[in-house]
Write a structure and sequence with these properties.
heterodimer, A: about 150 residues, alpha+beta, OB fold (Dihydrolipoamide Acetyltransferase, E2P), 2 domains, 5-stranded mixed barrel, B: about 650 residues, 4-stranded antiparallel beta sheet, globular
Chain lengths: ~150, ~650
């Protein structure tokens, strides 16, 4: 095999592997991207039931209802609209009424969001960026008085 | 006073690094030797100065000097001493100081131990190090000064985030940064080679030990982070494809490719372009990682305090460093003489395949990590790319690589015989097949691809052992000869086998945990029992307890297996006082066959307590595998050949013939 042939083979191999990788990436991206919506987005964009997405906002005060065993119900709000959420499992430590939360799951036919994961992994003043942006858009962002605690790394 | 000395030392270090950067320019006037001496002295001075700065910050933390803003933000007098010290780097400013400390340490290392490097090369390498250091010193001085003061000094600090008050996480940044920053040496060498216009096997012999050391520490750093996340975050998982995790993983992937590429360069003077590009990309990925973590552009569990000014600065540094290096490459690469020829089927060919797959996998991870960012800036949609994407792209790319790994060391340089290599691996293949059948028989449930994964892990382990067996002629020659061969085998051969074996262990652990993890979510009252993973766990209730800076609610769980008591686990929920934050401590029983993992939830109205129990089969193998990889790297590093003309011990360069293999 001449040098040129060897180099062509190498380039061909590189392109082949790259091609496979690109195909995988495109396929995977299409399949597994999860959009983030606030309760208002859900209403405006008319999200259909059964579609998987992330719902974020504030946990509405007084909305947390613990059902039988590990069933929990609460409401997520961006002060304009509210969506009821049901969740089965153990809530993270930093889940609190009036604090920011992001949950992932599907909207049920009855308009209740069935969450399969609840994310609140930060210090108590943490507001997920997406939630903050959504609140800012609605004009109800309460500013940084809680931000003073830049405590520690996480 | 000490803080002021530290602050001054830091600024002096900035000036010294500027001087270090200018050293090569003085060579024209004063000669190479003089320029080199200046660079060496500057590098050593820089290290001492940064060390002084770092120690003075540590002093401020240890004495709880709350007039220093950084100490106020991140420390508390009630914190245990160990965490006061680790709090030094548990925040943005302090960790940047640690970053430049390690950068200066490596620079001083090259300066001190690089006595048999050619003068010009050493000067340029140190100059590049100095340039990088200068940029980071400027960054620290302008946006992230750890020595900023508050007047009047507050009475008490805000405290360190409780989940950081942990031994694994205390040591995680130093290891990680040693890895990240260590790759700056490879980068500096690559840039120096481009500037100098020549690159050869001697250069590679120089780069290898530093790259290997950086890689070893990065491996352990990442593994520690994963282990910490596993037991501390309470989600039973060990890897979340979180952007910050990816930020450390990408340099690792590129660094592994670099390591193997440098190996080819040293042995065969080939793959020069790959090696230089990989050196540039690995360090650029380290910088990208730094950017992602500190700029706040990506929402993540562990992003540092958000500040767009810092983000922009680091982005500017990245543009300068990466852009500059790549432009230099475009300009000077044609000057590099092409190296040794080799057939496609050969060890070089296998290593090219290795480089290719690792680089493409790294690119896939990069795409997934940056895609949300890019999409948001273009369309404004907020999306998240999670584990499903990464599993779908990274996994399939790794599988062909892992299949090829045992073949690599069995192929000869220049022209290899794949049939012969295959013959030597029959036993390994057989063992892998048996393992897959065995796994299938033992579990006999979905996912069905998992036994193949187990087979893959065993293939790697058996392949590594087969390689050593082949080299020592095990079972084919009398024991005395086998022993003689084993003693004469270069340490890097053992290192290779050991590291590849470690990969095999990790693969088994990953497959087992991902495929066969069992999870039970239940609410129990005292006296109830649950079964999971072959254990029967009975709940004994919760009780309150006080810690040094927290209050906790502790659960009692009696664990039995087949009637015999095994252990008592005490998972808890803690409420720290400063800052007021809750954490969950999981109760973990680690055994070889897997971990039993219990997390307490809230107490419910009917007197029961919610909880999650997991059984994670063979999960410890993941971190044991990483440790074995570290050991393998260490074995290679201690090889006499690498110390010839190499930084560890200064010896006169001795020509060592490459062993016939």
């Amino acid at each position: 095999m001449t040098r040129k042939q060897r180099r062509s083979l190498l380039i061909g191999l590189c392109l082949a592997v790259l091609g496979v990788a690109v195909a995988l990436v495109l396929f995977a991206l299409e399949d597994s991207i999860v959009f983030f919506y606030s309760p208002s987005d859900v209403a405006e964009k008319k999200i259909s039931p059964g579609q998987r997405f992330r719902l974020g906002g504030l946990v509405e005060n007084g909305s947390v209802i613990r059902g039988a065993s590990t069933q929990i119900e609460f409401a997520v709000t961006d002060t304009a609209r509210t969506i009821k959420v049901t969740y089965e499992g153990v809530l993270p430590d930093l889940f609190r009424e009036g604090q920011g939360v992001v949950t992932e799951g599907k909207l049920g036919a009855d308009g209740v969001f069935v969450a399969d994961s609840v994310l609140a992994k930060h210090d108590e003043n943490y507001m997920p960026a997406e939630v903050a942006d959504a609140l800012k858009k609605k004009g109800v962002w309460q500013g940084d008085e809680g931000k003073a605690s830049k405590s520690g790394g996480s | 006073m000490i803080t002021e000395i530290g602050h001054f030392a830091l600024l002096l270090a900035l000036a010294v690094s500027a001087l270090q950067m200018m050293a090569p320019f003085g060579a024209a006037r004063h000669g190479e030797a003089a320029a080199s001496r200046l660079a060496v002295l500057a590098a050593q001075c820089q290290f001492v100065l940064v060390l002084i700065a770092f120690l003075s910050l540590t002093h401020a933390f240890v004495t709880s000097d709350f007039s220093v803003k950084n100490v106020f933000d991140n420390s508390h007098s009630a914190k245990p001493l160990v965490y006061k010290i680790s709090g030094v780097w548990g925040n943005h400013e302090g960790s940047m100081l640690l970053w430049v400390l390690i950068l200066a340490l490596f620079g001083a290392g090259v300066a001190t131990f690089g006595t048999n490097l050619p003068d010009r090369l050493r000067t340029i390498v140190l100059a590049v190090q100095g340039a990088i250091g200068l940029q980071f010193f400027l960054f620290i001085a302008t946006t992230s000064n750890p020595f900023a003061r508050i007047d009047p000094a507050p009475f008490e600090g805000r405290g360190l985030n409780p989940i950081l008050q942990d031994p694994a996480l205390a040591i995680h940044p130093p290891f990680l940064y040693t890895g990240y920053v260590g790759f700056s040496i490879a980068f500096a060498f690559a840039v120096a080679a481009l500037i100098d216009g020549k690159i050869d096997a001697v250069w590679a012999r120089w780069v290898r030990p530093w790259t290997l050391a950086a890689w070893m520490f990065l491996t352990v750093g990442i593994a520690m982070g994963s282990w910490w996340a596993y037991y501390e975050l309470g989600w039973g998982g060990w890897w979340f494809w979180d952007p910050v995790e990816n930020a450390s993983f990408m340099p690792w992937l590129a660094g592994t490719a670099l390591l193997h590429s440098a190996l080819v360069m040293e042995k065969r003077d080939a793959l020069k372009v790959w090696t230089i590009l990989l050196a540039i990309f690995t360090f650029s990925l380290s910088l990208l990682g730094t950017f992602l973590v500190r700029s706040g552009v990506l929402t993540s569990v562990h992003a540092f305090a958000v500040d767009s000014a810092r983000g922009v600065f680091i982005l500017a540094i990245m543009a300068l460093v990466t852009g500059g290096a790549l432009s230099l490459f475009a300009w000077r690469a044609p000057m590099l003489r092409s190296g040794g020829v080799f057939a496609p089927i050969s060890r070089e060919g296998a290593l090219i395949l290795n480089n290719l797959l690792l680089t493409v996998a790294c690119a896939a991870v990069l795409t997934g990590t940056l895609y949300p960012l890019v999409l948001e800036s273009i369309t404004g949609d907020k999306i998240s790319v999670g584990p499903p994407y990464f599993n779908m792209t990274f996994g399939p790319l790794m599988i062909p690589l892992l299949l090829a790994v045992p073949f690599g060391p069995m192929l000869a340089w220049k022209r290899g015989d794949i049939a012969a290599a295959g013959q030597r691996l029959y036993v390994a293949a057989g063992l892998a097949f048996l393992a897959a059948i065995g796994a299938l028989a033992m579990t006999f449930r979905a996912p069905w691809l998992a036994p193949l994964g187990i087979g893959l892990g065993v293939w790697l382990i058996a392949g590594a052992l087969s390689e050593t067996a082949f080299r020592t002629k095990l079972f084919k020659a009398p024991w005395t000869e086998v022993w003689r061969r084993a003693k004469g085998l270069p340490r890097s051969a053992y290192g290779t086998a050991c590291a590849h074996l470690g990969v095999g262990l990790m693969v088994i652990g990953i497959v087992a945990t991902s495929a066969w993890q069992s999870e039970v979510i239940v609410a129990m009252k005292p006296g109830d029992t649950t079964r999971i993973g072959g254990y029967s766990v009975s709940f004994g209730g919760v009780a309150p307890r006080r810690g040094p800076n927290y209050q906790e609610t502790v659960g009692v769980f009696k664990v039995e297996r087949a009637g015999t008591p095994i252990t008592v686990l005490n998972p808890s929920k803690r409420l720290y006082s400063a800052p007021r934050q809750g954490t969950t401590e999981a109760g973990i029983h680690a055994a070889w066959r897997g971990d039993l993992y219990i997390v307490l939830g809230d107490q419910l109205k009917d007197g029961t307590t919610a909880m999650r129990l997991y059984f994670n089969p063979l999960v410890r193998l993941i971190w044991i595998g990483a440790l074995v990889m570290f050991l393998g790297g260490g074995l290679s590093l201690s090889d006499r050949r690498l110390r010839v003309g190499a930084p560890r011990r200064s010896r006169r360069a001795v020509a060592t013939p490459a062993p016939a293999e």
